Structures are given as C-alpha cells and as structure tokens.
C-alpha cells in the first residue's frame, strides 16, 4: 500500500472523522456493477480485502484509508460515428430525404443504447488517506478530476467536506528553477536527473530531459534564455524520490528499499498485516516529508477567512 502519486488537500474545518460513522456513511453508496443501460457507476469499496465483511474504512492509528471504484462501459466514439453514418445513409437512400441534426441526435442515442449492453467494462480505483490531526486528505492520483470525483462523493455521503487544494506561498516553478539554476536546494532535498523546461512566452517551446546532468551547460543555457522548470525529479532524505510539477502534484513517488524492508518486518506474515504496516509507515513518512516540502516551497498559503 504505497501511494504512487499525491494530490494534497487541506481540511478548512475540524471534522471528527469517527471511523464508525464514516463506515456507515460510505456504506450508503457502495460500488456496484453497471446495469445494462448505464454508462458509469461510482461508489466505495474496501481498501483492503474483499467480501461483505471487509470494512470500507481502514483505521491505523490516527490515519484512515478509504477507496472508491469507478466502473464504466467503454463505447468508442468511432464505433458510434460509423454506425450513425451508416444509419443516416440508409435512411437518406431509402426515403430520399435529408436527415437533420435533431434526428441525428436521436439516432445516436438509440445506437448508444443498443450498443451499451455489449460494451467492455473498465474498472478503476482511487485511494485517499485522511489524516485528521494534520488536517490533510491525500489522494493517490495525479488527476485532479479523479481526486474530485472521490472527494465530491465523500462530501455527498458525509453531508459536508470542507477541503481545498493545498497551496504554497511561492510558485513551485520559481523554486524549482532556482534550485536547478543555483544548484542549491532546500535542506534534505536533492535534485535528480529529470526535468521539464518551458518557455514562458506564448506558444513557447518545451524541453524534456531524462537521465541528464541538470548542472550541465546545456540546461543552464536554457534557463538563461528565460525558460522555467515546470517538472523536476527530486529525492528527499534517503527515503523518497518523486517528480514535482508546477501545480503541486507529486508524481511517480518511490519509497526506497529501507522503508519497504521495514514495513515487511513490521507487518508479519499475514497479507493484511503487510498492507497495514506499509500504510502506517507511509503516513508517518508523509507526516515528516510534507511539512518539509511545504517549507521548501515558501510555506503553506492560508487564504483569508480559513
């Protein structure tokens, strides 16, 4: 149970997050399969384990873990367009008349309804960790849309969920650009070998570097022409490596072997114990890492009234 991406949300009010009450709330909207004429369904699943008895909220110390699953029928637009074109041509040939937009839209709806029961099913899960004492919700996704799907559904079952994306006082791109330009980073952070550089002018170019010495002349030349760093691979202490972007999205998180080995030792032989140990150790690591990340980016911004 190691998150691979991180979208960070700040709770703007204290919420109790009683595990039992949260379990009851999530149970009011369980994940379920799509019916034959449904395009998509969304609901909560047990983060660990399967079966009716598996809890929808995993509790570990001060931390809670929840998961939501989206199920959707995949109906390629090209298939619908081809079927619609064929139907329109058939009507126009047989009835010697033009098919206009209103009728086209109706035909399209009929085709979709006819094709839906045969469409492929795709399932995707999104996990979120709640740290009430830190006032944070951490979503294991790099997609704000997927995170908002989970948070809005959580808000729906709870009746309220006052959260906002966490923001920092200094633009991440400005900090990352300075780190690469000066080759000096915040304490405990180290620049690795990957970055994305963007020209700030309209229609400006993008340069992506992988396995590159970011202290080299080539990179410095790009920076001297006004490009800014919009993604940067970093390491924190000897525990984490990740890619940070200019929207404060943490991507491609990798927990180093020493943490994974420790979780394996702590978790015992049972699969559930291993999952619980890795989740707990991950959250404790985040508890140390995230405040240092916020501080490295100028500190957390607290909007007025929050």
From TrEMBL:
<dbReference type="Pfam" id="PF04381">
    <property type="entry name" value="RdgC"/>
</dbReference>
<protein>
    <recommendedName>
        <fullName>Recombination-associated protein RdgC</fullName>
    </recommendedName>
</protein>
<comment type="function">
    <text>May be involved in recombination.</text>
</comment>
<dbReference type="GO" id="GO:0043590">
    <property type="term" value="C:bacterial nucleoid"/>
</dbReference>
<dbReference type="GO" id="GO:0006310">
    <property type="term" value="P:DNA recombination"/>
</dbReference>
<dbReference type="GO" id="GO:0003690">
    <property type="term" value="F:double-stranded DNA binding"/>
</dbReference>
<keyword id="KW-0963">Cytoplasm</keyword>
<dbReference type="GO" id="GO:0000018">
    <property type="term" value="P:regulation of DNA recombination"/>
</dbReference>
<keyword id="KW-0233">DNA recombination</keyword>
<comment type="similarity">
    <text>Belongs to the RdgC family.</text>
</comment>
<dbReference type="GO" id="GO:0005737">
    <property type="term" value="C:cytoplasm"/>
</dbReference>
<dbReference type="InterPro" id="IPR007476">
    <property type="entry name" value="RdgC"/>
</dbReference>
């Amino acid at each position: 149970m190691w998150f691979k991406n991180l979208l960070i949300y700040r709770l703007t009010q204290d919420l109790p997050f009683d595990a039992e009450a949260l379990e009851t709330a999530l149970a009011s909207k369980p994940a379920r399969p799509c019916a034959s004429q449904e395009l998509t369904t969304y609901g909560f699943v047990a983060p660990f384990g399967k079966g009716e008895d598996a809890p929808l909220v995993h509790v570990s110390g001060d931390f809670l873990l929840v998961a939501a699953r989206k199920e959707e029928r995949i109906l390629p637009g090209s298939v619908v367009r081809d079927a619609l074109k064929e139907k329109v041509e058939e009507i126009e040939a047989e009835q010697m008349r033009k098919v206009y937009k209103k009728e086209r839209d109706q035909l399209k709806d009929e085709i979709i309804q006819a094709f839906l029961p045969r469409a492929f099913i795709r399932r995707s899960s999104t996990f979120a960790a709640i740290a009430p004492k830190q006032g944070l919700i951490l979503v294991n996704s790099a997609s704000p849309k997927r995170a908002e799907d989970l948070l809005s559904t959580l808000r729906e079952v709870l009746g309220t969920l006052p959260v906002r994306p966490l923001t920092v006082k200094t633009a991440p791109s400005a900090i990352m650009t300075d780190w690469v330009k000066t080759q000096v980073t915040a304490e405990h952070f180290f620049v690795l070998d990957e970055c994305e550089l963007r020209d700030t002018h309209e229609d400006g170019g993008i340069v992506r570097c992988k396995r590159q010495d970011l202290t080299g002349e080539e990179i410095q030349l790009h920076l001297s022409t006004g490009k800014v760093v919009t993604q940067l691979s970093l390491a924190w202490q000897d525990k984490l490596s990740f890619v940070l972007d200019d929207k404060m999205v943490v991507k491609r998180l990798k927990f180093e072997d020493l943490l994974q080995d420790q979780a394996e030792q702590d978790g015992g032989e049972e699969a559930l114990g291993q999952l619980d140990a890795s989740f707990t150790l991950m959250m404790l690591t985040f508890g140390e890492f995230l405040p240092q990340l916020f501080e490295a980016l100028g500190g957390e911004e607290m909007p007025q009234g929050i």
